[in-house]
Design a protein that fits this description.
Helix content is 31%, strand content 14%. It is α/β, with parallel strands linked by helices. Strand 8, helix 9 and strand 9 (226-229) form a beta-alpha-beta unit. Helix 5 (101-117) packs across helix 7 (159-170).
Amino acid sequence: MSMKIVVLDGYNAKGEELNFDFLKKYGEVAYYDRTAPEDVLNRIVDADIVLLNKVVLTREIMSQCKNLKFVSILATGYNVVDVKDARDLGITVSNVPYYSTASVAQLTVAFILEFASKVAAHDESVHRGVWQNSKDFAYTVGTLQELYGKTLGIVGYGSIGKRVAQIGKAFGMNLLIHNRTPFEGSVSREEVFEKADFVTLHCPLNEQSKLMINEKSLALFKPTAYLINTARGGLIDEKALADALNEGRIAGAGLDVLSTEPPKADNPLLTAKNCLITPHVAWASYESRVRLMNVTDDNVRAYLQNNPINVVN
């Protein structure tokens, strides 16, 4: 009997350049760009293998899918599936670790460079005609900064945090690192917040890290400091950060993630001062997505060979 494989929300992973045709060698494939919550059960009720990104699989749904034995998540985070419930139901769950390390680190540093060099602001002013009408051969829009000698504070020292640290060192920055599991040379979260010129978050969202950026912790920041978040939106109390930005208690923020995605129109960060926001794209470089597809192919093949890899349950 042919294996049935369902991709519930593949659009973001494949983009315009890639596809899921590699799955066809394993069986019948049903592909969907997106799946609404009310359509999940109907689409996977007879599936053997399910691939998903942000679609939530509850125990109630999984328990009704009698053929379902394997779920491969098109991401590193796997909170969309209750992995304990899946294990109880005999369903193996795998993820794709580390595929976006280089890309996420790259966007993190892009935010830092934008705050230091103000490339976009200068480009915009030139295209408005400011340079043509300048009395001088050069001008600046705001104060420019060298990264050399500045302090880079990294909260979370996994693969992405380590990559950002390597780049920071190359710029000649001093490093302050906080990690959930302390190591020789690491410091407290509070010390990072107090001393860093740039604070960048690279930790998972859990009960210990939820809303770690709040009114109390923001009070520790230098008014000249910048906050970067390419991890999870739930790490930040968004109103507290917006207030700090608008009142000049922190110099700026670069955010690739928000608490609700897409954001609601009344999210206070959308109108906050000096707040750069990108739409959760740090992971989405072409090269990163190619790795995502390749590892997903490996996950499915390894499971079918009774040797599952990247298992999270």
